[in-house]
Design goal:
alpha+beta; 11 helices; binds S-adenosylmethionine; globular; 2 domains; Rossmann fold; Double Stranded RNA Binding Domain
Length: about 375
Protein backbone atom coordinates (compact mmCIF):
# COMPACT_ATOMS: atom_id res chain seq x y z
CA UNK A 1 0.00 0.00 0.00
CA UNK A 2 2.19 2.78 -1.33
CA UNK A 3 -0.31 5.51 -0.44
CA UNK A 4 -0.50 4.41 3.21
CA UNK A 5 3.28 4.54 3.34
CA UNK A 6 3.29 8.09 1.91
CA UNK A 7 0.65 9.25 4.40
CA UNK A 8 2.56 7.65 7.27
CA UNK A 9 5.80 9.39 6.30
CA UNK A 10 3.86 12.67 6.10
CA UNK A 11 2.32 12.09 9.56
CA UNK A 12 5.76 11.41 11.08
CA UNK A 13 7.27 14.47 9.35
CA UNK A 14 4.45 16.63 10.71
CA UNK A 15 4.90 15.33 14.25
CA UNK A 16 8.66 15.83 14.03
CA UNK A 17 8.46 19.35 12.60
CA UNK A 18 6.08 20.44 15.35
CA UNK A 19 8.48 19.01 17.95
CA UNK A 20 5.91 16.42 19.05
CA UNK A 21 7.97 13.30 18.33
CA UNK A 22 11.30 12.58 20.01
CA UNK A 23 14.07 10.57 18.39
CA UNK A 24 13.69 7.30 20.32
CA UNK A 25 10.04 6.99 19.22
CA UNK A 26 10.43 8.18 15.61
CA UNK A 27 11.42 4.74 14.33
CA UNK A 28 8.35 3.15 15.94
CA UNK A 29 5.95 5.70 14.43
CA UNK A 30 7.69 5.31 11.07
CA UNK A 31 7.70 1.54 10.96
CA UNK A 32 4.38 0.59 12.61
CA UNK A 33 1.50 1.04 10.15
CA UNK A 34 -1.39 2.78 11.93
CA UNK A 35 -4.01 1.80 9.35
CA UNK A 36 -3.49 -1.88 10.18
CA UNK A 37 -5.00 -1.12 13.61
CA UNK A 38 -7.94 0.99 12.45
CA UNK A 39 -11.16 -1.09 12.16
CA UNK A 40 -13.04 -1.22 8.87
CA UNK A 41 -15.88 0.66 10.58
CA UNK A 42 -15.08 3.97 12.27
CA UNK A 43 -17.27 6.88 13.39
CA UNK A 44 -17.16 10.37 12.02
CA UNK A 45 -18.60 13.64 13.35
CA UNK A 46 -21.81 14.68 11.61
CA UNK A 47 -21.53 18.44 11.59
CA UNK A 48 -25.08 18.80 10.30
CA UNK A 49 -26.65 17.15 13.34
CA UNK A 50 -26.95 19.38 16.41
CA UNK A 51 -26.39 17.82 19.81
CA UNK A 52 -27.45 14.28 20.46
CA UNK A 53 -26.68 11.98 17.49
CA UNK A 54 -23.46 13.36 16.19
CA UNK A 55 -21.50 10.25 15.16
CA UNK A 56 -22.10 8.63 11.80
CA UNK A 57 -20.63 5.33 10.58
CA UNK A 58 -17.84 5.48 8.01
CA UNK A 59 -17.03 2.15 6.33
CA UNK A 60 -13.70 1.63 4.66
CA UNK A 61 -15.34 -0.16 1.72
CA UNK A 62 -17.64 2.81 1.09
CA UNK A 63 -15.01 5.56 1.22
CA UNK A 64 -11.51 4.01 1.27
CA UNK A 65 -9.79 7.34 0.59
CA UNK A 66 -11.36 9.18 3.54
CA UNK A 67 -10.84 6.13 5.77
CA UNK A 68 -7.11 6.09 4.93
CA UNK A 69 -6.78 9.83 5.42
CA UNK A 70 -8.38 9.49 8.86
CA UNK A 71 -5.96 6.68 9.68
CA UNK A 72 -2.98 9.01 9.18
CA UNK A 73 -4.44 12.33 10.35
CA UNK A 74 -3.03 13.77 13.55
CA UNK A 75 -6.41 13.29 15.21
CA UNK A 76 -8.17 10.71 17.33
CA UNK A 77 -10.42 8.24 15.49
CA UNK A 78 -13.66 7.04 17.08
CA UNK A 79 -13.57 3.26 16.64
CA UNK A 80 -16.53 2.20 18.81
CA UNK A 81 -19.66 3.98 20.01
CA UNK A 82 -22.03 3.15 22.85
CA UNK A 83 -20.11 0.00 23.85
CA UNK A 84 -20.75 -1.47 20.41
CA UNK A 85 -24.52 -0.83 20.36
CA UNK A 86 -25.13 2.48 18.56
CA UNK A 87 -27.96 4.17 20.40
CA UNK A 88 -28.73 7.12 18.13
CA UNK A 89 -31.38 7.31 15.44
CA UNK A 90 -30.68 5.56 12.11
CA UNK A 91 -27.65 3.68 13.41
CA UNK A 92 -25.85 6.77 14.64
CA UNK A 93 -23.64 6.84 17.70
CA UNK A 94 -24.04 8.93 20.85
CA UNK A 95 -20.88 8.41 22.90
CA UNK A 96 -17.37 7.34 21.84
CA UNK A 97 -16.42 4.27 23.90
CA UNK A 98 -13.19 3.27 22.15
CA UNK A 99 -10.80 5.17 19.93
CA UNK A 100 -7.39 5.38 18.37
CA UNK A 101 -5.77 8.22 20.27
CA UNK A 102 -4.34 11.30 18.60
CA UNK A 103 -0.77 10.52 17.43
CA UNK A 104 0.71 13.69 18.97
CA UNK A 105 -0.83 12.81 22.35
CA UNK A 106 0.47 9.24 22.09
CA UNK A 107 3.96 10.51 21.31
CA UNK A 108 3.78 12.87 24.29
CA UNK A 109 2.70 10.06 26.63
CA UNK A 110 5.27 7.58 25.33
CA UNK A 111 8.03 10.15 25.84
CA UNK A 112 6.78 10.90 29.36
CA UNK A 113 6.83 7.16 30.13
CA UNK A 114 10.66 7.20 29.97
CA UNK A 115 11.16 3.57 28.96
CA UNK A 116 14.52 1.87 28.49
CA UNK A 117 15.29 -1.35 26.59
CA UNK A 118 14.45 -4.43 28.64
CA UNK A 119 11.67 -2.75 30.65
CA UNK A 120 8.31 -4.45 31.16
CA UNK A 121 5.22 -2.35 30.56
CA UNK A 122 1.55 -2.83 31.42
CA UNK A 123 -0.85 -0.85 29.25
CA UNK A 124 -4.46 -0.30 30.34
CA UNK A 125 -6.92 0.34 27.50
CA UNK A 126 -5.66 -1.60 24.46
CA UNK A 127 -8.20 0.00 22.11
CA UNK A 128 -6.99 -0.56 18.55
CA UNK A 129 -3.66 -2.00 19.73
CA UNK A 130 -1.61 0.69 17.96
CA UNK A 131 -0.05 2.12 21.14
CA UNK A 132 0.76 -1.41 22.33
CA UNK A 133 2.45 -2.06 18.97
CA UNK A 134 4.57 1.10 19.33
CA UNK A 135 5.66 -0.11 22.78
CA UNK A 136 6.38 -3.57 21.36
CA UNK A 137 8.48 -2.07 18.57
CA UNK A 138 10.66 -0.37 21.17
CA UNK A 139 10.71 -2.98 23.95
CA UNK A 140 9.83 -6.29 22.33
CA UNK A 141 6.35 -7.83 22.27
CA UNK A 142 7.12 -10.17 25.16
CA UNK A 143 7.77 -7.18 27.43
CA UNK A 144 4.35 -5.60 26.92
CA UNK A 145 0.99 -6.68 28.37
CA UNK A 146 -2.18 -4.79 27.51
CA UNK A 147 -5.62 -5.01 29.16
CA UNK A 148 -8.85 -4.11 27.36
CA UNK A 149 -12.26 -4.29 29.03
CA UNK A 150 -14.31 -4.70 25.86
CA UNK A 151 -14.06 -8.25 24.40
CA UNK A 152 -14.79 -7.19 20.80
CA UNK A 153 -12.23 -4.39 20.94
CA UNK A 154 -9.69 -6.75 22.52
CA UNK A 155 -10.25 -9.34 19.78
CA UNK A 156 -9.73 -6.76 17.05
CA UNK A 157 -6.49 -5.59 18.73
CA UNK A 158 -5.17 -9.17 18.98
CA UNK A 159 -5.78 -9.73 15.26
CA UNK A 160 -4.20 -6.40 14.29
CA UNK A 161 -1.16 -6.99 16.50
CA UNK A 162 -0.69 -10.42 14.95
CA UNK A 163 -1.01 -8.94 11.44
CA UNK A 164 1.64 -6.35 12.32
CA UNK A 165 4.04 -9.01 13.59
CA UNK A 166 3.42 -8.50 17.32
CA UNK A 167 1.35 -11.61 17.99
CA UNK A 168 3.51 -12.39 21.03
CA UNK A 169 2.10 -9.36 22.85
CA UNK A 170 -0.44 -10.52 25.43
CA UNK A 171 -3.81 -8.75 25.22
CA UNK A 172 -5.90 -9.58 28.27
CA UNK A 173 -9.67 -9.08 28.22
CA UNK A 174 -10.61 -7.70 31.62
CA UNK A 175 -10.93 -4.72 33.92
CA UNK A 176 -7.61 -2.89 33.75
CA UNK A 177 -8.39 -1.15 37.04
CA UNK A 178 -7.25 -4.46 38.57
CA UNK A 179 -3.97 -4.33 36.63
CA UNK A 180 -2.74 -7.75 35.52
CA UNK A 181 -1.13 -9.55 38.44
CA UNK A 182 0.31 -12.57 36.58
CA UNK A 183 2.64 -10.25 34.64
CA UNK A 184 3.78 -8.14 37.64
CA UNK A 185 6.04 -6.52 38.66
CA UNK A 186 6.16 -3.93 35.87
CA UNK A 187 8.67 -1.13 35.33
CA UNK A 188 5.96 1.08 33.87
CA UNK A 189 2.17 1.23 33.83
CA UNK A 190 0.55 3.41 31.17
CA UNK A 191 -3.18 3.95 31.03
CA UNK A 192 -4.82 5.29 27.87
CA UNK A 193 -8.15 6.07 29.53
CA UNK A 194 -8.74 8.71 32.21
CA UNK A 195 -8.91 7.94 35.91
CA UNK A 196 -10.51 10.26 38.45
CA UNK A 197 -9.30 7.78 41.09
CA UNK A 198 -5.98 6.09 40.30
CA UNK A 199 -6.45 2.36 41.05
CA UNK A 200 -4.00 1.20 43.72
CA UNK A 201 -3.48 -2.10 41.84
CA UNK A 202 -1.33 -0.20 39.32
CA UNK A 203 0.95 1.00 42.13
CA UNK A 204 1.06 -2.41 43.82
CA UNK A 205 2.07 -4.10 40.56
CA UNK A 206 4.90 -1.64 39.76
CA UNK A 207 8.38 -2.24 41.17
CA UNK A 208 9.80 0.37 43.56
CA UNK A 209 11.29 3.19 41.50
CA UNK A 210 8.94 2.36 38.61
CA UNK A 211 6.37 4.77 37.18
CA UNK A 212 2.65 4.96 36.58
CA UNK A 213 1.41 7.34 33.87
CA UNK A 214 -2.27 8.09 33.43
CA UNK A 215 -4.63 10.76 32.19
CA UNK A 216 -6.50 12.10 35.21
CA UNK A 217 -9.29 14.55 35.68
CA UNK A 218 -12.24 15.81 37.63
CA UNK A 219 -15.83 16.00 36.43
CA UNK A 220 -15.26 19.75 36.06
CA UNK A 221 -12.05 19.62 34.03
CA UNK A 222 -10.81 16.33 32.60
CA UNK A 223 -7.41 17.35 31.43
CA UNK A 224 -4.14 16.34 33.15
CA UNK A 225 -1.48 13.74 32.49
CA UNK A 226 -0.34 12.43 35.89
CA UNK A 227 3.04 10.80 36.44
CA UNK A 228 3.65 8.87 39.67
CA UNK A 229 6.80 7.24 41.03
CA UNK A 230 6.39 4.20 43.23
CA UNK A 231 8.29 4.39 46.51
CA UNK A 232 9.81 1.54 48.54
CA UNK A 233 6.88 1.78 50.99
CA UNK A 234 4.39 0.86 48.25
CA UNK A 235 2.87 4.34 47.91
CA UNK A 236 3.18 6.41 44.76
CA UNK A 237 3.74 10.17 44.56
CA UNK A 238 3.83 12.62 41.69
CA UNK A 239 1.86 15.25 39.88
CA UNK A 240 0.50 16.67 36.65
CA UNK A 241 3.13 16.82 33.90
CA UNK A 242 1.04 17.97 30.95
CA UNK A 243 -2.41 18.14 29.40
CA UNK A 244 -4.42 15.03 28.47
CA UNK A 245 -8.09 14.56 27.67
CA UNK A 246 -9.25 10.93 27.40
CA UNK A 247 -12.40 8.87 27.78
CA UNK A 248 -12.91 7.61 31.34
CA UNK A 249 -12.14 4.15 32.61
CA UNK A 250 -15.42 2.32 32.21
CA UNK A 251 -16.33 2.09 35.92
CA UNK A 252 -15.51 5.78 36.42
CA UNK A 253 -17.56 7.05 33.49
CA UNK A 254 -19.74 10.09 33.90
CA UNK A 255 -22.93 9.33 31.94
CA UNK A 256 -23.40 11.56 28.92
CA UNK A 257 -26.68 13.43 28.84
CA UNK A 258 -28.57 15.91 26.76
CA UNK A 259 -28.85 19.42 28.11
CA UNK A 260 -32.60 19.42 27.57
CA UNK A 261 -32.95 16.54 30.04
CA UNK A 262 -31.37 18.55 32.86
CA UNK A 263 -32.04 22.17 32.04
CA UNK A 264 -35.73 22.92 31.67
CA UNK A 265 -36.81 26.39 30.65
CA UNK A 266 -39.73 26.12 33.10
CA UNK A 267 -37.34 25.78 36.05
CA UNK A 268 -37.51 28.65 38.50
CA UNK A 269 -33.87 29.63 38.28
CA UNK A 270 -32.33 32.35 40.43
CA UNK A 271 -30.94 35.08 38.20
CA UNK A 272 -27.84 37.17 38.98
CA UNK A 273 -24.82 38.45 37.06
CA UNK A 274 -21.03 38.38 37.02
CA UNK A 275 -18.12 40.09 35.32
CA UNK A 276 -16.04 36.87 35.29
CA UNK A 277 -15.41 35.69 31.73
CA UNK A 278 -16.24 31.96 31.32
CA UNK A 279 -12.77 31.24 29.93
CA UNK A 280 -11.25 32.33 33.25
CA UNK A 281 -13.12 29.65 35.22
CA UNK A 282 -13.53 26.85 32.67
CA UNK A 283 -10.86 27.31 29.97
CA UNK A 284 -7.76 28.39 31.85
CA UNK A 285 -6.09 25.10 32.80
CA UNK A 286 -4.63 26.18 36.15
CA UNK A 287 -7.86 27.73 37.42
CA UNK A 288 -10.07 24.94 36.05
CA UNK A 289 -7.91 22.24 37.66
CA UNK A 290 -8.07 23.98 41.05
CA UNK A 291 -11.82 24.57 40.76
CA UNK A 292 -12.42 20.92 39.82
CA UNK A 293 -10.52 19.80 42.91
CA UNK A 294 -12.67 22.00 45.18
CA UNK A 295 -16.10 21.71 43.53
CA UNK A 296 -16.98 18.02 43.35
CA UNK A 297 -19.42 16.31 40.97
CA UNK A 298 -19.86 19.42 38.87
CA UNK A 299 -19.43 19.09 35.11
CA UNK A 300 -18.67 22.13 33.01
CA UNK A 301 -18.83 22.71 29.33
CA UNK A 302 -19.03 25.68 27.05
CA UNK A 303 -21.26 25.97 24.02
CA UNK A 304 -20.12 28.74 21.67
CA UNK A 305 -22.67 30.51 19.52
CA UNK A 306 -19.99 32.64 17.88
CA UNK A 307 -16.68 34.15 18.99
CA UNK A 308 -18.35 36.65 21.34
CA UNK A 309 -21.43 34.83 22.64
CA UNK A 310 -22.13 31.44 24.17
CA UNK A 311 -23.17 29.62 27.32
CA UNK A 312 -21.16 27.98 30.07
CA UNK A 313 -23.11 25.10 31.59
CA UNK A 314 -22.44 23.76 35.10
CA UNK A 315 -24.31 20.55 35.93
CA UNK A 316 -24.57 18.10 38.82
CA UNK A 317 -26.53 15.27 37.21
CA UNK A 318 -27.14 13.40 40.48
CA UNK A 319 -29.44 16.02 41.91
CA UNK A 320 -30.25 17.94 38.75
CA UNK A 321 -28.62 21.14 39.92
CA UNK A 322 -27.44 23.41 37.17
CA UNK A 323 -26.17 26.90 36.46
CA UNK A 324 -25.56 28.81 33.25
CA UNK A 325 -23.39 31.80 32.47
CA UNK A 326 -24.39 33.56 29.28
CA UNK A 327 -21.48 35.26 27.52
CA UNK A 328 -22.32 38.46 25.65
CA UNK A 329 -19.93 40.89 23.89
CA UNK A 330 -19.72 42.99 27.09
CA UNK A 331 -20.06 42.12 30.81
CA UNK A 332 -22.01 41.81 33.03
CA UNK A 333 -22.97 38.25 32.03
CA UNK A 334 -26.25 36.75 33.17
CA UNK A 335 -26.12 33.84 35.64
CA UNK A 336 -29.02 31.40 36.19
CA UNK A 337 -28.91 28.81 38.98
CA UNK A 338 -31.39 26.07 39.76
CA UNK A 339 -31.56 23.10 42.13
CA UNK A 340 -30.21 22.07 45.49
CA UNK A 341 -26.65 23.24 44.75
CA UNK A 342 -25.81 26.78 43.71
CA UNK A 343 -23.10 25.67 41.32
CA UNK A 344 -22.05 29.08 40.07
CA UNK A 345 -21.61 30.29 43.66
CA UNK A 346 -19.43 27.24 44.38
CA UNK A 347 -17.35 27.74 41.24
CA UNK A 348 -16.95 31.45 41.90
CA UNK A 349 -15.79 30.77 45.50
CA UNK A 350 -13.26 28.17 44.28
CA UNK A 351 -12.04 30.62 41.62
CA UNK A 352 -11.58 33.28 44.29
CA UNK A 353 -9.60 30.76 46.39
CA UNK A 354 -7.33 30.16 43.39
CA UNK A 355 -6.75 33.91 42.90
CA UNK A 356 -6.08 34.45 46.61
CA UNK A 357 -3.60 31.54 46.59
CA UNK A 358 -1.54 33.33 43.91
CA UNK A 359 -3.02 31.53 40.87
CA UNK A 360 -1.15 28.25 41.41
CA UNK A 361 -0.16 26.24 38.32
CA UNK A 362 -1.19 22.62 37.78
CA UNK A 363 2.20 21.32 38.88
CA UNK A 364 1.65 22.61 42.42
CA UNK A 365 -0.79 19.73 43.13
CA UNK A 366 0.92 16.73 44.72
CA UNK A 367 -0.67 13.32 44.27
CA UNK A 368 -0.19 10.49 46.78
CA UNK A 369 -1.71 7.07 46.13
CA UNK A 370 -1.81 4.65 49.07
CA UNK A 371 -3.61 1.32 49.45
CA UNK A 372 -6.56 3.13 51.02
CA UNK A 373 -6.67 6.60 49.49
CA UNK A 374 -5.81 9.11 46.79
CA UNK A 375 -4.68 12.45 48.22
CA UNK A 376 -4.23 15.53 46.04
CA UNK A 377 -2.73 18.37 48.03
CA UNK A 378 -1.80 21.89 47.16
CA UNK A 379 1.93 22.40 47.70
CA UNK A 380 2.70 26.09 48.04
CA UNK A 381 5.86 26.91 46.08
C1 LIG B 1 -8.63 5.92 24.14
S1 LIG B 1 -8.95 4.21 23.97
C2 LIG B 1 -7.34 3.51 23.93
C3 LIG B 1 -6.48 3.83 22.76
C4 LIG B 1 -5.47 2.77 22.47
N1 LIG B 1 -4.43 2.66 23.44
C5 LIG B 1 -4.92 2.81 21.07
O1 LIG B 1 -3.73 2.71 20.86
O2 LIG B 1 -5.70 2.86 20.14
C6 LIG B 1 -9.42 3.74 25.62
C7 LIG B 1 -9.72 2.27 25.75
O3 LIG B 1 -9.80 1.96 27.14
C8 LIG B 1 -10.73 0.92 27.28
N2 LIG B 1 -11.12 0.85 28.70
C9 LIG B 1 -11.98 1.65 29.39
N3 LIG B 1 -12.06 1.24 30.66
C10 LIG B 1 -11.21 0.18 30.80
C11 LIG B 1 -10.85 -0.66 31.88
N4 LIG B 1 -11.38 -0.49 33.09
N5 LIG B 1 -9.96 -1.65 31.64
C12 LIG B 1 -9.42 -1.83 30.41
N6 LIG B 1 -9.73 -1.08 29.34
C13 LIG B 1 -10.61 -0.07 29.54
C14 LIG B 1 -11.85 1.31 26.33
O4 LIG B 1 -12.67 0.20 26.03
C15 LIG B 1 -11.04 1.83 25.15
O5 LIG B 1 -10.81 0.81 24.21
Amino acid sequence: MAEAQTLRVRMVEGLTQRGELDEPWRAAFTEVARHVFVPELVWDQDRGCAGDCDLVPLRRAEDPQRWLELAYANAFIATQVDDGHPSGAEGRGFEVTSSASMPAVMAQMLTALQVEPGMRVLEIGTGTGYNAALLAHRLGAANVVSVEIDPTVAEHARAALAAAGYGALRVVTGDGAQGYLPGAPYDRVICTAAAAEVPYAWVAQTRPGGRVLTPWGTAYYPGGLVELTVGPDGTATGGIVGPASFMWLRAQRIPRYTISRIIRPADTAIVSSTDVHPWRVAGEVNAATAIGLRVHDCESFYHAEDSATGTLYLVDQRNRSWATLHLTPQPPYEIRQSGHRKLWDEVKAAYQWWIDAGEPAVDTWRFTITPSSQRIEYCRA
